[in-house]
Amino acid sequence: MSGPRTREPAPAKLTSGREKMILAAVREGFFMTVAARRAGIHARTLRKWRGRAWASKERGESNVYTAFEDKLVQALAEAEYKLFHGIRLAADDDPEQAKWLLEKRWPKRWARDRQRIELTGKDGGPIELEEAKAKVGAKLGSLAARLGDGEKE
Fold first, then answer.
1. In whole angstroms, what is the distance from residue 70 CA to residue 50 CA?
2. pLDDT at 143
3. Mapping DSSP to helix (H, G, I), strand (E, B) and coil, where does residue 91 land?
4. What is the Cα Rg of the chain in Å?
5. What is the DSSP letter of 123?
6. Residues 100, 87: contact at Cβ < 8 Å?
7. Of 97, 80, 79, whose CA–CA distance to 88 is shortest?
8. Measured by CB atoms within 10 angstroms of the end CB, which terminus of the chain is less buried, N or C?
9. Which residues of 135-151 are buried (b: 16+ CB within 10 A; e: fewer)?
10. Which pTM value belongs to this model?
11. What pLDDT was estimated at residue 70?
C-alpha cells in the first residue's frame, strides 16, 4: 500500500488558453464568475484555483496556481485603473460624472445624499425590548409545553 499523496494534482483545467481568456475578461472589468464561464469553467473551479494559490503562498511555495493568481491580481488592478480613468476623463466634461466620482471615492467628504435612519421607542425614547422578550419567552414556553404533551399546532 502506498503512503499519502504528497504532490499537488496536475492542473488539467488550468490551460494557457483558459488563463488568457480569464485574464482578458477580468482586464475588461467583468466579474470573476463571467470570466470563468467565458473560459468554459465553473466559478467554483476558479475559486478553488485561487484557494490553492493562497494556500501555496502561505507555505512559501510557487506553482502554476500562484503564478496565475499573481497575473489575476494584476489584471484586477488594470481593470480598476482603466474603469476609474474612463470615469475620470468623463468627469472633465460632465459635472454629474465628477460628482459621482467624488461621492464614491471620498464618501465621507462628498456624499451629501446619504440618509440616516434612526429608530426610537415611544416618545422618542429608547426601544424597550424587555416586554417583547417576555412575550416571546412566554410563547416559547407555552409551545414547548404543548409539544412536550404531544399536542400539535
1. 10
2. 85
3. helix
4. 27
5. G
6. yes
7. 97
8. N
9. eeeeeeeeeeeeeeeee
10. 0.61
11. 97
Per-residue pLDDT of the chain (153 residues; tens, 9 = 90+): 555 555 665 556 899 999 999 999 999 999 999 999 999 999 999 999 999 999 999 999 999 999 999 999 999 999 999 998 998 899 899 989 888 888 888 888 888 766 777 888 888 888 888 888 888 888 888 888 888 765 554
At position 108, the amino acid (one-letter code) is K
Distance of alpha carbon 119 from alpha carbon 113, whole angstroms = 19
CA 92 remoteness from chain centre: 31
Q: Are 106 and 98 in contact (CB under 8 A)?
A: no
- Cα-based distances in Å from 110 to 26, 98, 100, 124: 29, 11, 9, 30
Which residues, at least 6 apart from 143, have a Cβ–Cβ distance to it below 8 Å? 153
Is residue 122 helix, strand or coil?
helix
Q: Contact, 35 vs 46, CB < 8 A?
A: yes
- So what's the pLDDT on residue 6? 58
Residues with Cβ within 8 Å of residue 121, at least 6 apart in sequence: 127, 128
